[in-house]
Every structure is written in structure tokens, then in C-alpha cells.
Amino acid sequence: MKIAPSILAADFKRLCEEIKAVEPFVEWIHLDIMDGRFVPNITFGPDVVREVRKCTNLVLDAHLMVSEPEKSIEEFAKAGADYITVHIEACDVDACIKLIHAQGKKAGISIKPKTPVEEVLRFIKNIDLVLVMSVEPGAGGQRFMEDVMLKVRKLREQIDRLGLDVLVSVDGGIDQETVKAAKEAGADVIVSGSYIFGSNDYEKAINKLKM
């Protein structure tokens, strides 16, 4: 299981230093991009992703919580993202998948907690990652919605049954207790921001998520 620290919870005044602090203990970095339209908050754009890419060779997953993501896929690809994950609720999914793959990147689909998992299954053979939100997207530090793990379990079963190389990621409200439900449901990637960057010891926090 991979741990993907979300830099949204890091100290942006010393972002590269923060990334270097977690780098020895993880394989991925999660990038929460918000436009103030699809979700209420605004975070950062391709320029920050470009700076993160200069800091690290870790896998970068750009989670586009934006309206009309097809307009910015190429920019984030050029900025250095390895995975580009779009919301099923925000775009023409087939078109986005094609655009992402055309840039030579891995394509992910994300779903909000209330979106039926069946909507993702239609695209499962054409994508590389499913990101299941276990909080409402748009802000960090929310409470984990354990009932969403039923979706994770269903995705895991379908992916394994079809023999697909598709990762299942869980994002939202993850700490040393809630991570257990995500693991049991079959998650491959765990996104955690506040729990890691809000701790006094990043290595210890990450190791607790892996236990």
C-alpha cells in the first residue's frame, strides 16, 4: 500500500523542504488543485506543480477538482504530473481520459462520496486509477465517511475479477484509525494531509498509516 501525502496541508512557505522531509518514507505526492467553481476553495495551478516536480522524483498525482478539466489537462501534464485525476461529475470522462493518455500520462477518475460507484465501472477498463473521496471535496481536515468504503470494496472486487491494473485510492479524513477501514476495503493508495503534516514527526505518522 502506498501513502500519498497531500501537500495542501504542508507549509507552502517552505514547500520543497516539506516534500524532502516526507520523501524518504513515501512513493507518491498528492496535489489538490481547486478552482473555486467545482469546489468552493482555490488552491494552486501548474506553476506550483512545476516547482514540486523540481523538488522530487516521487510520483505526482494531480487531483483536478475543477470545472472543465479538459481545458487544463495539457498544462498539468507539461508541469510534470504523472497521474492526472479528474472528477466524473465535472467533465466528459471519455474525452478527458483520451486527453490524459495523449499526453503520455496515467488517467484517474475521482468520485464524490454521494456518486454511485457504478458510474465509474463504465470506464474502468480505460483508466489507471480510481480516487474515492471519503469526505466532500474542497477542504482538508474533514471527518472520514466510513460508509464510502463499500464503494472501495466494490471497486476492488470488480478490478480483481477483471484482472485489471487499476489502482484504488482513498482521500479524505485519513488518520491512524480510519486508515484501517480503507486497508480492509482494498485501497492501494492512501492520501493523507492533515494527519501527516500536522504531526511533529512525519516519519512516525507515515509509519502508523502503514501499520
Summarize the topology:
Layout: E1 2-5, H1 15-22, E2 28-34, H2 46-55, E3 59-65, H3 73-79, E4 83-87, H4 93-102, E5 106-111, H5 118-121, E6 129-133, H6 149-162, E7 167-171, H7 179-185, E8 189-192, H8 194-197, H9 202-210
Parallel strand pairs: 1-8, 2-3, 3-4, 4-5, 5-6, 6-7, 7-8
Helix pairs in contact: 2-3, 6-7
Under the CATH scheme, which architecture would be assigned? Alpha-Beta Barrel
| Tally of discrete structural domains | 1
- The CATH class, by name, is Alpha Beta
Percent of residues in β-strands: 15-25%
The SSE string, one letter per element, is EHEHEHEHEHEHEHEHH
Give me the side-by-side strand order of the main sheet: 1-8-7-6-5-4-3-2
CATH topology: TIM Barrel
Estimate percent helicity. 25-40%
- Uncertain parts: none
Largest sheet: 8 strands, parallel
The radius of gyration over CA amounts to 16 Å
Count of distinct strands: 8
CATH superfamily: Aldolase class I
Average per-residue pLDDT, rounded, comes to 95
Structural class: alpha/beta
Describe the structure.
The chain has 211 residues and is of the alpha/beta class. The chain has a single domain, classed as Aldolase class I (TIM Barrel, Alpha-Beta Barrel), CATH 3.20.20. The chain is 35% helix and 20% strand. It has nine helices and eight strands. Strands 1-8-7-6-5-4-3-2 form an eight-stranded parallel sheet. α6 links the parallel β6 and β7. The longest helix has 14 residues. The radius of gyration is 16 Å and the shape is globular.
